Amino acid sequence: MTNNDKPKDGSEEPRPASPRGRQASRQAPQPVESRPRRYMVAALPQPHPATPGAAVPALDGDTVRRLLEDDPEVRVLRRLRDAAGNPGAQAPGFPAVVVAEMTVEHVEALRRQYPQLYFERDRLLTYSDVPQPPRRRRPAPAVVPPGVESTFAFLIRDADGTPLPGASVLVTGHGWPAQASTGTDGRAVVTMVGETPESITGVTVRPRSGYWSVHVDRPALSTTRDNLLEPMRLSETFAGFPGKQVFGWGQQAMNLDRLPPTLRGAGVKIAIIDSGADVRHPDLRDRVRAGVDLVDGAPDGWSIDAAYHGSHCAAVVSGADDGRGVVGFAVEAEVHACKIFPDGRFSDLIQALDYCIEQQIDVVNLSLASRHQSSLVAAKIEQAREAGVACVVAAGNDGGPVGFPGILPGVLTVAAVGKADAFPPGTTHETEIRGPMTGDGYFSPRFTCHGPEIDVCAPGVAVLSAVPSDGYAVLDGTSMAAPHVAGLAALVLAHHGDFQGPFSGRDARRVDHLFHIIRSSCVPLNLGDLHRTGAGMPNALRALAPALAQITPEPVEADTLLGQLTAEMTGAGLLACADWGQGGDSGHTGQGGQADPGAQSGMPPHPGMATQAACSAGATANGPVPGGLVTGGPRGRATATGGGVPPADQRAAPGGAGTRGKRGGTAAAQPYANGPGRGRTPASGGRTPGGAAGDVPAGPRAANGTPMAATGPSGVEQAAMAWLAEEMRAAGLLGDDPADPME
Question: Positions of the region Disordered (predicted)?
Answer without folding.
Answer: 1-38, 582-715
